[in-house]
Amino acid sequence: MAGLVLIGTLFLFILIGFPIAVSIGLSCVLYVLAFHTVPMDFIIQSFLNGTYSFTLLAIPFFVLSGELMINGGISQRLINFCMSLIKNRKGGLGMVTVIACMFFAAISGSGPATVACIGGIMIPQMIRYGYDKEFSTSITAAAGSLGPIIPPSIMFLLYGVVNQVSVSKLFMGGVVPGVLMGIALLFMTKLICGKKNFTPPPEVAEESEKLFNVKISRSFRESFWALLVPVIILGGIYGGIFSPTEAAVVACMYALFVGFFIYKELRIKDLPMIFIRAFRSCSFLIVISFSVAFGKLMAMEGVPTAIADAVLGVSQNKYVVLLLINLLLLGVGMIMDAAPATIILGPLLLGIVQPLGVDPIHFGVIMIMNLSIGMVTPPVGVNLFVGTKISKIPMENTFGYTLKLLAGMIIVLMLVTYIPFFSMALPNLFV
Amino acid sequence: MQLHFNDKKLWNHLEEYLCACLFGIMLIMLFTQVVLRFLFHLSSPVLEEYSLYMFVWFVFLASSNAILRNEHIRIEVITARLPEKVQAGLYLVMMVINIGYSAVVMYAGWFKVMDQYLLGTVSATTFPLFIMSLALPVGMFASIVRSLQNIYLTIKLDLIKKEGGDV
Amino acid sequence: FGTGKSSDSSVPKDTAGEEKKETSGGETYTLKIGHTVSETDPTQLGYLHFKELIEEKSDGRIEVQIFPNQSIAETDRDALEKVRDNTLQMANTMPGLFAGISNMEEYYVWNIPYIYKSNEEMYKLAESDWMLELNEKFKETTGVRIIADASFNMGWYAFGTTKKDVPKLDDFKGLKIRINETPQQIALVESIGITPVFISFNEVYQACQQGMVDGMMTAQNLFYSNRYYEVLKSLKILKNGAAFHQYIVNEEWYQSLPDDLRTVFDECVSEMTEYIREEEVTYTDKAMKALADEGMTVYEVTEEETKVLEDACRTHIFPDKEAALVDEQYINKALEIVAQ
Ligand code: NA
Ligand code: NA
Questions:
Q1: Which domain of life does the protein's organism represent (chain A) (predicted)?
Q2: Which of A65, A371, A418, C291 lies 20 to 30 Å from A214, alpha-carbon distance?
């Protein structure tokens, strides 16, 4: 009952146009005032604990590194190189975005960070060359969800720890599904761009044409320092020099260095505004902090348990239950952040499916894919938040494209759910 | 919603200037941590910890800043279809509720701060934690002030239609 | 700052944590318990045992809800704070943490390496008159009741490394090891030439896998339950501390129980303690065997090494208030108690 009130008030506030951060906080506070089952201090403590997170700290720095790379000329050169690879074709820039996100997912553990870094570079570029803002935002948000699927991944770590499942196997399990999802997004991009036929406005048409027609060897030389960014991040993390969060910091310092001393496009007087712009893009962080409190209240009210009972009440068949869980997780992904959802629901759902014969690794991949898709679904879709912050459009404007892209992603999700081979082949082979 | 506040006033950029500084300090501290560990095999427990305290302030002030700028993520599908005056009215209601809610959190947050201050609550490295927790009531207070500004400007400019935002 | 005076005025009391419902047998008391470890850990088994016992003995008048896996209490520190504010009524936590929320430096003796060297010594210190006195003061200051004789050892501290052979203390020189951020442990590991690295617990696995650190220090059982053996090759059980936990309960909730239920509660806690102490021993044995099966080499600390480390503590930690966080007289007092 109280659990229903909690979820009901949240949706009510969100639907009448309240900021999502306020809606979550407000429904938590109202719940405490109405039911007295936990003290108000619980809310305060959860808000603070939810914010005091080293993982969350990575986000502003990836946002900042994006800003620095744009202003310092790095992003432009990176784009140039990708363009010379893809050549001029319909939806070329969209495809560059997806490929860049796949690549970046392999160096970042988080979805929003992937959107912030690639989106910070690609969204303005796509808009400049005639893509509409809505598509640019949607495709980046969707491709950003590859961040936690392709390893390394904070989500897999959380899942592995709470369920006592091998993290290295989980990482391996994410590779093929991540790549499949990337391919699906490339396909959807081609489909959508084929219909929409985005063309560069006349004043930049020539520039766009030229960019695509550069020889790969030349664009490689010109963008060498820019291409080194992912190498440094990747090499730094896998070479054991820094953690993924620190990688964001190093990326900022590197972008500052290259922007000032190599490309010389960055000026001291630009810095305050760059920092302020990055700061402004971080207002959504509070939503994630607050959702920790919200998730805990749901746990206390037994909402997850009630859901589990409901699922098993419908069917005991493995395939039906997996379908129901997919639907459930897509629903949960709509309103809840992936981290608390993984921690709270992971053990519960695994407890349902494991006796039915589903491998914990396989299920982990399904679960993380679901919750990563949840990062793109409104109303609480953190990737959309980051994307719309960059493109400065209302979130609901992106829903049209987002739905189409989601369709592609959900097809891959179903493939991975019902064909264990995709998630299990690599872990069985290597670990 | 249209922005009404006076962009030229320093007052309206307080959170931004403060947090831009915090941002820079966090960047330097965390980079120092990487360099110290990699080049000199040194490590300090406080670099990351203190960065996180700053980050807590950063997040709560980012929220109040977004209130002023109406940059918080909202779903406006339903409200966008309403007449302009109704929208402005709804916006006012929202701001008033936000003030009430922020006041409750500020009040409870202030108790937390006082509690930690009086008890001498410290972290593992003996950092007094009330300094971190203070970010919550301060952030909520700032949100209240920014909401009041928005209420004033909305009434004056959207409902009474006077010229020029002067706060 | 802060005198650690009464907190009664500083916490809003209008929101009681207990839900009371009228039933035929009188009031029903809800007891919410939270812990940070997984559902297969002895901690959970202990609480399940406790739930069964107390619900039966109280004829259902005490209703227990268990929240495992960090679902409510994210860290031991958080568990303590949540019992204090009555979000949870009961939890288990490490006594060293009591100092951080009470300004009572004496509790930091629990963080000093090699104060105790066996379970019996830990129990002795925990149940000493000195600690009972401190606990009384702690209860008045914070509203948290420490159940002194309800304690258990979740495992001794050990060093897992990515090196196949690290049998001797000297071999740790120059290694980068992730440790807890307590000044006492920092001082100890630095004194034997280890570079302490501070990264969040969730990142340790990856950091070991990718070589950012050479290993980590934590309670020996966790190397098994958190699957660190996948990325580590050797384990040295240095016993430079332990994940020693005591049960804590919210005093206001405890006092709200009628006398008969309070007796039932006390009895059940005692039974749970007996049960979990046995379970922990079994679990540690199982964990150490499993680690060996997974290809990790497990080394116990030798007497000479313990001697070296104890001397390091005496010279680097005891006299240094910055590192020990507690006055040397209290350290000596604790040493006296365990030596008796
Ligand atoms: Na990733
Ligand atoms: Na979502």
A1: Bacteria
A2: A65
Nearest chain C residue to A340, by CA:
C71
Query: Cβ contact (<8 Å) for B52 and A26?
Result: no
Measured in residues, chain C has a length of 340
Tell me the residue type at C111: N
CB half-sphere exposure, B43, CA atoms < 13 A: 29
What are the Cα distances from residue C111, in Å, to A208, B107, C184? Answer: 64, 35, 7
How many domains are contained in chain B?
1
Q: Which residues contact A331 (CB under 8 A, 6 or more apart)?
A: none
Model confidence pLDDT, tens digit, residues A230-282: 778 767 766 778 877 788 899 899 999 999 999 999 999 999 999 999 999 88
CA of A281 to the centre of ligand 1 (A): 22
Tokens 């900021």 identify what position? A19
Distance from CA of B111 to the nearest CA of A (A): 9
Q: Reply yes or no on whether the pLDDT at C96 is more than 80.
A: yes
**Tokens, residue C4:** 């650690």
Interface A:B, Cβ pairs < 8 A: 166
Domain that holds residue B100: 10-159
- The answer as to whether B165 is a domain residue is no
Count CB neighbours of B18 within 10 A: 15
Is residue B164 in some structural domain? no
Which member of C176, C181, C197 has the closest CB to residue B125? C181
Q: How far apart are alpha carbons C32 and A247 in whole angstroms?
A: 40
- Which chains contact B through at least 3 pairs of Cβ atoms less than 8 Å apart? A, C
How many Cβ pairs within 8 Å bridge chains B and C?
69
ipTM over the 0.95 cut-off: no
Domain membership of residue B15 (yes or no) is yes
Q: Both tokens of residue A22? A: 């306020």
Per-residue confidence band for C164, with pLDDT thresholds at 50, 70 and 90: confident
CB A128 within 8 A of CB A398: no
